[in-house]
């Protein structure tokens, strides 16, 4: 049984394959299974963190399910898990990971773990940018004395420092301010 509240939705039309993925993941995550694209969309809710999506299914294909997930702007990561050989058409698809079948248990577990870490990182990065933007705005409109006397401003600076530390740790312990800023800017340009 899962020891976290993280939810993985497996959308796979082959019951044996879906059951195998469930068995591999159920110890760490809550796993729900859909046997078709339509059923997958019905089961998709806010609480789903990662979707493992077969690309080729009868009815609604994995590509169509992925398009619907992205158009609804659902906050989940999607890994295409498929026997379809990747081609240039994947460049237009909005998945977060692409796994070619047959998939090994460790590969599947690692992919889910990486996608969950990336989600956490993205949230931290968004909050960090939001806080830095607030800091810049307030510093542009308030004088030094007013800033020094503001508890809210000190709290804001402390939160920015905490977020910076968390992001630095996630990025492998970058300590130097210039390296940190360059890395964050580089990541933002990629996304």
From TrEMBL:
Residues 7-116 form the Response regulatory domain. Pfam families: HalX, Response_reg. InterPro entries: Bact_response_regulator, CheY-like_superfamily, HalX_domain, Sig_transdc_resp-reg_receiver. The modification 4-aspartylphosphate is found at residue 54. Transmembrane segments: none annotated. Keywords: Phosphoprotein. CDD domains: REC_OmpR. It comes from the Archaea. This is Response regulator. The lineage of its organism: Archaea, Methanobacteriati, Methanobacteriota, Stenosarchaea group, Halobacteria.
């Amino acid at each position: 049984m899962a020891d976290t509240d993280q939810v993985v939705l497996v959308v796979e039309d082959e019951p044996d394959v879906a059951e195998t993925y469930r068995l591999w993941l159920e110890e760490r995550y809550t796993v729900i299974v859909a046997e078709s694209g339509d059923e997958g969309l019905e089961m998709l809710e806010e609480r789903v963190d990662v979707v493992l999506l077969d690309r080729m299914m009868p009815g609604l294909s994995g590509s169509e399910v992925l398009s619907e997930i992205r158009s609804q702007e659902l906050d989940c990561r999607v890994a295409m898990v498929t026997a379809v050989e990747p081609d240039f058409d994947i460049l237009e698809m909005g998945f977060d990971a692409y796994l070619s079948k047959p998939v090994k248990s460790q590969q599947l577990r690692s992919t889910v773990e990486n996608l969950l870490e990336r989600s956490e990182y993205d949230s931290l990065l968004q909050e960090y940018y939001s806080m830095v933007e607030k800091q810049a705005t307030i510093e542009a409109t308030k004088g030094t004395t007013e800033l020094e006397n503001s508890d809210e401003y000190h709290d804001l600076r402390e939160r920015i420092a905490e977020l910076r530390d968390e992001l630095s740790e996630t990025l492998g312990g970058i300590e130097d301010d210039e390296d940190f800023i360059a890395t964050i800017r580089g990541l933002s340009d990629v996304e």
